[in-house]
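Protocol step 4 of 5: obtain the predicted structure for the target chain.
Materials: sequence only (see below). No template structures provided, no constraints applied. The aim of this step is simply to have a reference model before the mutagenesis design in step 5. Sequence pasted as it appears in the construct record:
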Amino acid sequence: MKIDKKIIKELNEYLEEFNLTEIEITEKDTKIKVSKNVRSNIIQPSTFAYNSPNEKSILETVKEISEKGGKCSFAVAELTDPDQCKASVQKAITEFGTIHGLVNNAGVNDSIGLENGDENTFILSLKKNVVHFFVMAQACLPYLKNNKGAIVNIGSKVSMTGQGGTSAYAAACGGRNALTREWAVELLPHSIRVNGVIVAESYTPLYEKWINTFPNPREKLNEIEEKIPLENRMTTPEEIANTVAFLLSDKSSHTTGELIFIDGGYTHLDLSLIHISEPTR
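Step 4 output (structure tokens):
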């Protein structure tokens, strides 16, 4: 795929947000490379297709993967539109012939709460955060059946801990967890594995934007990091991607129906223990 040099120059000069949504793995490969680009959490097997609403950031990523010898395609889709979801899957099939795995990774914490929301915004939030998981999985299903493929649903700690003021997002994230378990059962006859990766605090571009809404972003970030038990730091996008890569690969060939928390112990450990002094080295 040829990319205009002017666009590449603009991409290198303009560090805009990379908002990954879906990944459709289209070729199994025993070597799965994880991107070292800290602005994204892309899994890079030898051939894949993915959707994103940001075409410029896609082109930069396509260039990077192509230069490393990989094969890559993309589709820009509004995931609240089922027809666009299905069209993106069809594009992958047209270009590569099949699909081995799907990663559902799109969502936005849009703060539709019990007090400040209404039924219309609540339903729209569900469409943004969970309905397209179903649509994408259903569109990919015939090919996943043929390949005994895998599905990974990315979720949030909000489904377990609550947050306050974000009822719709919390409901959607709980729905993702429930769909993970439900699909794992339903798809057992086809040997399709379905697992979830639950994230707590990870310093992505979206997270950075949120932090910068506070009067003192650095102070707020330190306050959050101090509550993360393991090493008092954020989970990196690469750590999340490594787990997703594992769950897509044959290395996890007997793992299904699991919700795996990649959060440094944030969700389940006793936070009162976080200030235990480090062991003597």
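Step 4 remarks: Residues 1-53, 277-281 have pLDDT under 50 and may be disordered. The longest helix spans residues 119-147.
Proceed to step 5.
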